[in-house]
Amino acid sequence: MNPTIETILNHRSIRTFTEKKITSEDLQLILKAACNGSTMGNMQLFSIIVTQDKEMMQKMAPAHFNQPIATNAPLILTFCADFHRFNKYCEYRGAETEAYSNLQAYQWAVTDALIAAQNACVAAESLGLGLCWLGTITFNVDKFVEILQLPKHVVPVACIAIGHPANTPELTTKIASTKHTLKKKHILIQLLFLKKINFQI
Predict the structure, then answer these.
(1) Range of 25's domain?
(2) Is position 7 within any domain?
(3) Which residues contact 174 (CB under 8 A, 6 or more apart)?
(4) What is the pLDDT of residues 139-185, one digit of tens each?
(5) Does a structural domain hold residue 67?
(6) What is the CATH number of the domain that holds 149?
(7) Cα separation values, 164 from 6, 52, 82, 101, 132, Å
(8) How far apart are CA 163 and CA 18, in angstroms?
(9) pTM confidence score
(10) Residue 201's pLDDT band (cuts 50, 70, 90)
(11) How far apart are the first and last CA of the chain?
């Protein structure tokens, strides 16, 4: 099995880290990998906020529901859907930006940000680091916008805590790929545990 596939298949959420810091070299590799993913029309509609300062982590902690991982990790990466930079570029070039003031354009930016986030995860784990996604970022978007002083058209959509694992938990059970994979159309009978819930077809 090639190393990339092995890294992906061995993914597990790490919620406790050692005190060892992430080297600047590893951080730059993670960020470079994050920024090298596919993007909509190569518009690159995302930004990454790097947080290593414990004081800033403490400020964000309440919005993360005070999860220990939000302050114990040596590195927090916040991925934002970002049309601010693109709009500024368009304005500089004298191009209209109204065409992007809609839900579809926002979805492009969210997709770009999430692709970048997943690339960062694969890169981090390939370097022997552990990580955990913090879903709280989408519960308190307004609070994170305020804390991080984000400009208009920048929305945080993903947050990942990264560090050196303090332990190695067991892999969690995943739904088989055959249950996720559909041919031509969605078929209800392919749902996992269908018989257990006595679903009528």
Answers:
(1) 3-171
(2) yes
(3) none
(4) 999 999 999 999 999 999 999 999 999 998 888 888 788 777 777 66
(5) yes
(6) 3.40.109.10
(7) 19, 14, 29, 41, 12
(8) 7
(9) 0.88
(10) very low
(11) 40
